[in-house]
Queue: 3 jobs
Job 1
Amino acid sequence: MKAVFAIPGDKDRRTGGFIYEATVLRELNALGHATQHMELPDSFPDPTPEDMAETLAMLRRVPASCPIILDGLVFGAIDPDGLATVQAPLIAMIHHPLGLETGVEAARAQVLLHNEAAALQYAAHVIVPSPHTARILVHDFGVDPAKLTIAQPGFNRPAGDSAPVDPPLILSVGLLAPRKGHDVLLDALARIKDLPWQAEIVGRAHDMDTDRALAQQCERLGLSERVHFMGELAAERLDCRFRAASVFALATRYEGYGMVLSEAMLYGLPVVSCSVGAVPETVGEAGVLVPAQDAGAFADGLRRALRDREQLGALSLDKSRSLPTWKQTAGHFITVLEGFERQKR
């Protein structure tokens, strides 16, 4: 093997970061760069002492000749002193710093930010999905730009035609977690009840409190007949929902990239989202972006997207033509890994 990709828990979970890493892992092997999957304990970013010890033991067993690509959920929370004992070169795969996750208590966020900064001192290289995350790591975490590579997510272009349903479907896809802003979306939808639409929110529950709160909010706002929580969908079923939609909406509070936004653009959907994190870079002029946590502005964005969906959809589709393939994304990883191979010679 030429490398190890260390990922906590089930690598095939249907969330952006895991989809990114599982796909890159497959592409690396398909391109002849033999990369072994290492499944780490699933408790990160809040590992038990036992899982921390097991993780460090697994990483120490990798020989010094074999670089380890280490998932950011682990890298941000792992014991930095323990990382110092790992002999293999460490490549940090950072989607966004853990301390920037919405809903984390201030004291916990500071601990995570400090810990991640310390852990990054032991990274031989860092890979990120967006220029936005790269800037944060350089300016706020002291990462050397010479040791940093941007590998934007790749995408498979959908085949076939869209089939929008009537009334128009407003589709949102994202984990039912506070950062994704589904509560703001519901408040915005309640402000456009005068328009014809239906809505679907696709994503698995992150925690029972958030799941319960969203269900209660939907009921309280009188949206239960028009908004449907679909849970997590397999790729084929999600493809059908994208084809049926007329507008894509994600009231996110932060994104290190926001893969689902680009995915929506591949289907030629107008995008309504928020001017946070990497979203402006990801969407550009192809969507309607409003301040985060502003349900009124988000409602106005939805009105515009429903009204001008043909014009905005054309912009969205045009923007999507510049998106990379997964082979190109994996190519950035191979360039980094080949750099370590040259150092061994």
Note: Residues 326-344 form the longest helix (19 residues).
Job 2
Amino acid sequence: MSAKPARPEQLPLALPHRPARGREDFLVAPCNEAAVAWIDRWPDWPAPALTLYGPEGSGKTHLLHVWAEAAGAPVWSAADLRVEGLDERLGARRWVAVDAADAAAEPDALFHLFNMLRERSGAMLAGARVAPARWTMGTADLRSRLAAAPSVALGTPDDALLGAVLMKLFADRQLPVAPELIEYLSARMPRTFEAALSLVDRLDRMALAERKGLTLPLARRALESLDESE
């Protein structure tokens, strides 16, 4: 009797999940407390712009959404900003959050948006990887005006915050996880928010593909694959 052919490996789909981005969901620690203080200080800002900068996964987008909810402002991706139609898109708004501002497809659109909001006594909250003083894109006027406004860095996490971030990322995906596994991961993973994002995504996909819960052997393999990719 011939053996049955092996079943092809089922790769999990990249199912969307919705991160929790409320003010109460943000984890405050020394690496981000200055940025949180500026968000809480709004609308008492000394300039028509504020830039939050730091590595991917450091909480910039989360804080942009926290501020946007408080200000009744939209959150726009700088990659989608265009000079054409900007007036109509802005409408009567006075407050706008712009994510990935240092990756603007049309830096002139960012400059026009800043000027329009300033003329309305409004403000722009920008998220970026680096401070405006270090930008190479856009006009000198754009860089100098944003550099003259406050810029606040969000840093890398300490051990306690990294563990809390892992817990939150698993909760965002509705994945139950034991404290022992969090301790195991946080003690061995790279000390960046970006690594936490990648690691949780890998574990989610591996658990789905193998129809298993989150176990230490699975976590060990996810860490090994993360090291290999880096």
Note: The first strand starts at residue 49 and ends at 53.
Job 3
Amino acid sequence: MRVRTADRRAAIIETAMEVFREVGYERASMAAISARVGGSKATLYGYFKSKEELFAAAMISVMEGQAQDAIALLDAANPDVVQVLTDFGLAYLALLTSSETVSLVRIAVAEGANSDLGARLYALGPERSWKDIASYLAQLQDRKFIRQADPHVAAAHLKGLLEAGTIEPLLFGADAWFRPIDAVTRAVQVFLMAYGLHGH
């Protein structure tokens, strides 16, 4: 029996993403993926028990690293909240507007109507990330950098402002309304008009 390797797993995920993007989740098959990887179906099933598990791994591999990089920019000790939120916003939009992410999100949303896969992916990815962001906003409140409010509501407002005019058009295959820097600058401005304290 061949030893499973991280490199082999990564190569399978990369190939699977290509297949999912080309034909969609429903029409993609483990047979087609294993043929393109250049191994047997048995080898593929040795790494991933099902197509659903493989798609989840593909989605997470695309989003998790970059999402964590973006969240790592949220330094609650830094009093320059405008700069911190701007840096975070640009990293967040870069992740969400990449063609890879847009394709996978479309598939996950479509699949959400057919199974619990979409909901599970949402809990593993976006929901977990925004809980981290709510935690950052709660720390800003403790440090008196922003006003007291439910941090989950504040996080939802920040998310909505950052995505406005950008994510929805891209998901529909249209052009974003704004350049990322303009979208983020305005989003941060409006967020701090609502949640900021005078003098910050």
Note: Residues 117-142 form the longest helix (26 residues).
